[in-house]
Amino acid sequence: MTAAADLTPEAVRALLADTEPYLSCDECFARIDEYVERRVSDRGFRDDRLETHLAGCGVCAEEAAALEELLRG
Length: 73
Hints:
Strand content: under 5%
């Protein structure tokens, strides 16, 4: 178990993030490729449900960041 002192401010924000409207990790992974491609081509593109999920899910956020880095490469 992680001690409270080990939690970074980012981890605390993710744990406390409002994840409504809810989007599961499976739904996120089904949409993440298109989301990242559209964000790379249009910085103004928004997907509120997916962005809410990414704010509270480190695994999916890492995947999105890796995909974006690959596309921007």
